Amino acid sequence: MTTTHLQPPNPIRTARIALKELARVLALLLPGFLALFLIVRAFVNGHVSDITFALWLLVIQALSLLVPNPVNETRGDRKAILIKLAALLPAILLLFPLTVVVLIFGELDTAAFVFHLAFGIGGTPLREFAPYIVTVTIYWAAILITLYRLRKWLRRIPFWWSLCCVSLIAGNPLVRDALFNQFQAKYGRGESLITAFQDPMLIAPIEGENPDLIILYLEGMERTYGIKDSFGEIYVPIERLAESGVPFSDVAQIDGTGWSLAGMTATQCGVPLLPMGSLPLNRTADMKQIGAGVTCLTDILKARGYHSTYASTTEIIGSDRGHYGFDNFYRTHQLDQIVDKANAMTPGAIAAREAGDTSWALRDGEGYAIALAHVEARLKSDQPYALILSTMDTHGPKAHMSDQCVADGQPKVSDDLTDAVACTSKLTETFIAELRKLTKDRSTRIVVASDHLAHHNNLSPQLDQHPRRNMVMFLNGPDAPRVIDKPAAMPDVFPTLLHWLGWLDSGAPQAAGIGKSLFHDPATLIETFGIEGVNDRLRRDVELAAKFWHSAP
């Protein structure tokens, strides 16, 4: 009889096989891991990536597909895994637009996202954002391909599919906020800032003076750009303007004021633009009026006999839910006229329409031409007027320059927002000088402000090294030039403006909305609670949101 002796396992060969298998798993895992890392990093700390990262990820994914991946499975097994991956798509599709927004803006402002989901983004040039959409598509595709390629090992993990579903849903900021709002509405709303709300106590419309009023919102042109060690001389023209008036040096951004219309509701109504109630998307989508529960600047202007106009270089007049909600807001508050890209009658605006211009906005230089033409027309009437104008070139992430700022006289686009900030700063100083000359024979007050802090752009790393503050200044007023450094937020601008115009009753609180006049002593909410303290209250303040929207909490 022959005896067979089993050979002992060769430890070197065993280790080599194990290392080879580990390398195979890592090669299969790498594309999905990198994609997930880039997505999570953007959501957690605002470190964004662009299409360059996505294209490199495509290369890595292609190399990963070359790695052999033998799987012993039946057709039924393969079908089952494909069905499970397909079932993940709804959760991924919910996260998809949020991921695009985070990559563009460097953060997700859920209040802004819900608002724009309800009121629309008509007129947005999607071609400028197409690289971000492609980037996010590549990221999520890499994750799904990786899961499919790892199916041999995933089958050994109990409830792996359920864990993926729960992670995708629980990681969705909109889901978390909706659950939080529901909880707050039912069990504990906390301390509401509604106790700080004050309807403006005004003098009679026939009392006081009625100077012409021009309010200029410079897109994302925050005060931080004036720090020369980081940004050089790009903001000097704005600083020269501030030296001739009353600038406010410590106006912070709080929740519900981080996009253009929200900055306007804060500075014109004294209230942030908060989502409505416990189911913000469902309830906001039913609304056509914005801020119906509060008195805003244009309501007061109407009562005092003003003709008021909002001028924008973008197209904002839409259907009953106007683009970005501007039309809805100003129609709610008795504005007389809207001038936008589609109806402006300056030669440049007409030429752009005749040329079939499909860009997001007219350049800032043309916006100032529209404003000067409007002022010149209004000066022919004795009726006081108010003009509210907003710019666009410094929105980012791309930098746009008016033809006055480039040698060949044609609009220019660059990846460095320094170019746009420098150009708009120079044009703004020139515009104010022309405006002062044009209105020298009539009492005219001018407000220049950033509508919010800058969105994410190539200068964000430098901006984030400093305390970031909005730019607000009052020009042509009765006060001697001085800097007011009282800690404040954008809602404080509204009562400060009314105080400056002399329209608040001197015997009543110098307050409006949740803001306090910065010309007066009472503490602002920022002084009382700090920025984070105010934000913490706003995030769960269904009563204040209900007051703004004129609805039940």
Quick summary:
The chain is of the alpha/beta class and 553 residues long. It has 22 helices and twelve strands.
Task: Give an overview in words.
The protein has 553 residues and is α/β, with parallel strands linked by helices. The chain is built from 22 helices and twelve strands. The chain has helices at residues 11-45, 51-65, 75-87, 89-105, 110-119, 126-149, 151-154, 160-170, 173-187, 228-231, 236-243, 260-269, 280-285, 297-303, 326-332, 347-354, 364-378, 417-438, 460-463, 493-501, 525-538, 542-549, and strands spanning 212-218, 246-252, 307-312, 337-339, 385-390, 399-401, 412-414, 444-450, 470-475, 488-489, 511-512, 515-516. An eight-stranded mixed sheet has the order 4-3-5-1-8-9-2-10, sandwiched between helices. It has a two-stranded antiparallel sheet with strand order 6-7. α15 (326-332) links the parallel β3 and β4 (337-339). The protein starts with 10 loop residues before the first helix and ends with a helix.
